Amino acid sequence: MLKVNLTHARAKGSFEVHLKKLEAELKVEKDAHAKTQIDLSARLRKSQDMNNGLECLLYFKNQEVTKLSIEAFKLEMELENKCQEKQLALDG
Can you give 55-73 as a three-state secondary structure string? Predict the structure, then answer.
C-alpha cells in the first residue's frame, strides 16, 4: 500500500510540475500576444494618421487643380475673344 501511495505521490508531483510548466508557457504566450496586439494597435494608429494626412494633402491638391482648371478656362476664353475681335477687325 505504501508503494502505491509513493507512486501516486510521484505521479501527482510530476503532473503538478508539468502543469506549472504549461502554465508558465501559457503566460509567456499570453504576454507575447498582448505585446503583439499593442504593437499592431500602434501601427494601425500610425497608418490611420498617415492616411488622414494624405487625404488632407489630396484634398488641397484637388483644390489647386480645380483653381488651375478655372484659370486655364478663363485664359482660353480670353484668347478666344481676342481671336474673334481680331477676326472681326480684319473682316470689318
Answer: HHHHHHHHHHHHHHHHHHH
Query: Shortest CA distance to 22 belongs to which of 30, 34, 10?
Result: 30
- Tell me the three cell numbers of residue 4: 502505491
Residue type, 49: D
Please give the torsion angle defined by the CA atoms of residues 24, 27, 32 and 38, in that order, rounded to the nearest 10 degrees.
Answer: -160
Rounded Cα–Cα distance for residues 22 and 38 (Å): 24
Distance CA 24, CA 82 (A): 86
Task: Tell me, yes or no, if the pTM score tops 0.70.
Answer: no
What is the tens place of the pLDDT at every residue in 39-64? Answer: 999 999 999 999 999 999 999 999 99
